[in-house]
Amino acid sequence: MAAMQLDLLKHELIRLDWEVDDQEEFFERIAAELLPAGYIKDTFCGALAERERKYPTALPTMPEAVAIPHSDVEHIVKPFIAPVRLARPINWREMGNDDVVHPVRFIFVLGFVQEDRHVEVLQIMLQAFQDPAFMERLSAAQTPDEYYRVLSGMSGVQAA
Length: 160
Hints:
This protein has 160 residues and is α/β, with parallel strands linked by helices. It has five helices and seven strands, in the order E-E-H-H-E-E-E-E-H-H-H-E. The chain is globular.
């Protein structure tokens, strides 16, 4: 079974109910948080936007679609998952199907320093995102602590 180390999930990077108008604003805002915290290089924002244009990352999970944007490893300083919940959905193109756009409120920005780590993490996250009860707990979380507790309870997450 796939496993994900809990230390990838960064409590200090949880952002709840952000107000953004579109994907570009989201990318700029998350990069502005990650850069001074030492997680990314200054090339990250542009790389994230470019990769998203070529390979969109919205997943049509139910009950809500999620997006999992990421860049190539050379733009990352130290590994992270930055979980962001938006106050209201923004449009995001579907992974593998550019013609379909989903309203997305749950975004998980991934930063890995090894190319192969993301497959296991994606498997674990996708399994959790398809559970309506799990998504309801994420939606209902009032604080970053509550959000972190829900995420760290995903099946397959292991203490570091």
